[in-house]
Amino acid sequence: MENKKNNVLLKLFTSTLYLSAFTFGGGYVIVTLLKDKFVDQYHWIDEEEMLDLVAIAQSSPGAIAVNGAIVVGYKLAGIPGVLLSVLGAVIPPMVILSLVSMCYVAFSTNPYIAAMLSGMRAGVGAVIASVVWDMGRNVVKTKDYINIVIMFLSFCASYFGGVNVIFIIIAVALFGMIRSIITGKSAIKAENTVKEEFAGETRISDQEKSAGKTNAFSSEKPSGKAGDRS
What is the rounded average pLDDT of the residues 132-144? Predict the structure, then answer.
């Protein structure tokens, strides 16, 4: 058991280190890479859990790449998983940015570096589009029309209305909490109703059994008296 846990921790560290080292273009790019690694390859979590983890990472302060590593690491291995996944996610950008900052002037005016970054932006756009497609498709697959409408309205509010993403996240979080409370109360009420109906049916069944025993005893008792008189 201990060896298995150590193996998971080692894979978690090497995976986040590898993904962080080759992730360019912001935290959203690492989402699809985390999905490929932890959902498709290792099968540690499923797609629905991945969506929940991404939602938590997005709604928490800080970089989404680090937040995603935190929630995935905690889900898989608790506090040790958090520490190793954060360490793996932080080391590559810290080293790369330290080196780039030392040669920033040369990099900023180098046409080859500028062309390389321009090409990377195009690739990053495609990766982010893939993330949006995968996450949106999973929401549609749930056939929960309320979530689909929320997704559409959130996009319209952000893209067309220019609403700050922070306000959108707060609004949908509050809506989800209220909806969960209402749904939970409805489920509890339905469960109590089923229990009451079952209890009522049980009482009726017990009464019918008692009545049946009483009738049987009453029908047997006169026949016994008749036998005594004879």
Answer: 79
